[in-house]
Automatic annotation (TrEMBL):
The keyword Nucleotide-binding applies. It comes from Acinonyx jubatus. Keywords: ATP-binding, Nucleotide-binding, Phosphoprotein. It comes from the Eukaryota. InterPro entries: KTI12/PSTK, P-loop_NTPase. Belongs to the KTI12 family. Gene3D superfamilies: P-loop containing nucleotide triphosphate hydrolases. The lineage of its organism: Eukaryota, Metazoa, Chordata, Craniata, Vertebrata. This is Protein KTI12 homolog. The keyword Phosphoprotein applies. One of its GO terms (molecular function) is ATP binding.
Length: 354
């Protein structure tokens, strides 16, 4: 059954969308497995993305968990950042090896279609520009704020170490700070932002969020490992369940590479019979061309087809063509082709000589 890969930065609603998709598919009686960071690590730990070695180990564990669950009978949902296109290509290769379809669901914060989380967003309110920021600051992008522009501030979470254990201090509610004009109504905070700050706002530091934003490699539907691609902006946009179902259960699996496929079993005497058959055809051809004239159709031993004689052929030329045919046939051994080896060699000679 298919693989669903969720992609996006923290606070983009991936886990909620994954749970929504899991519930919809489970209601249809399908077996659905969700693989996420908490399942692999035992608990959600954002600091793993600040250490390249730990993050690499996490990606390997996620890939192994998906590979164990991936089959033609179960739906596997991978709920993680998956922001590296090389890792998404590895997941594509897993689905291709399992001969099962896959799709990518890209979750984006409102205003963050460029690939990063929304750090500052302008909200239109009665003709005034209100700067909404999750960091307390008095300047926006290095420039002083205009007089009369209220700023929505959120104190950063403070970590204190007590008895060898880190304790997070929950920030207070946001309070508007006025810079010049009193009695302005506070800007409306969307449901997306409220849910986001309530869930995991204390887990990812601003420095880590900035680093993840810089490292993020946004999906591109032009890449075969990133399609079919479904982009969801915010939590208000409905999940396209019909399109996802069509991509998972109606599309064909990616075609496997020939180099990764097991060669068909061949008998131990296949090469011996191949050598014997081609030798008999060459011997019969050398004997038949002694009495033939250009334009005759030669009937050779062991074949049901004819070879048109156009000119005398030397043994060196025929031996070179025979070696080429044997080299090609050894790459695709098949016991079903044994009765047709003589005709196949005759067709190869006819195409090579004319």
């Amino acid at each position: 059954m298919p693989l669903v890969v969720f992609c996006g930065l923290p606070y983009s609603g991936k886990s909620r969308r994954a749970e929504e998709l899991r519930g919809a598919l489970a209601a249809e009686g399908r077996a659905v497995y969700v693989v996420d960071d908490a399942l692999v690590l035992g608990t959600e730990d954002a600091t793993v993305y600040a250490d390249s070695a730990r993050e690499k180990a996490l990606r390997g564990a996620l890939r192994a968990a998906v590979e164990r669950r991936l089959s033609r009978h179960d739906v596997v949902i991978l709920d993680s950042l998956n922001y590296i296109k090389g890792f998404r290509y590895e997941l594509y290769c897993l689905a291709r090896a399992a001969r099962t379809p896959l799709c990518l669901v890209y979750c984006v914060r409102p205003g963050g279609l460029s690939g990063g989380p929304r750090v500052a967003d302008a909200v239109d309110h009665r003709g005034l520009n209100l700067s909404v920021s999750w960091r307390p600051r008095t300047e926006e992008r290095g420039r002083p704020l205009a007089v009369g522009t209220p700023v929505l501030r959120e104190p950063q979470a403070v970590d204190s170490v007590a008895s060898g254990r880190t304790q997070a201090v929950v920030p207070k509610e946001l309070e508007p700070e006025e810079t010049g004009v009193p009695d302005l109504p506070a800007p409306v905070t969307s449901e997306f932002d409220t849910c986001e700050k309530r869930m995991v706002s204390t887990f990812y530091s601003p420095e880590l969020m900035e680093a993840l934003t810089l490292r993020f490699e946004a999906p591109d539907s032009r890449n075969r490992w990133d399609r079919p691609l479904f982009t969801l902006v915010g939590l208000e946009e409905p999940l396209p369940l019909a399109e996802i179902r069509a991509a998972l259960f109606e599309n064909q699996a990616p075609p496997p590479h020939q180099s990764t496929q097991s060669q068909p079993l061949a008998s131990g005497s296949f090469l011996h019979q191949l050598d014997q058959v081609t030798s008999q055809v060459l011997a019969g051809l050398m004997e038949a061309q002694k009495r033939a004239v250009p334009g005759d159709l030669l009937k050779l031993p062991g074949t049901t087809e004819h070879l048109q004689f156009t000119r005398p052929l030397t043994m060196a030329e025929l031996s070179r063509l025979r070696r080429q045919f044997i080299s090609y046939t050894k790459m695709h051994p098949n016991n079903e082709n044994l009765p047709q080896l003589a005709n196949m060699f005759l067709q190869y000679l006819s195409q090579s000589l004319h």
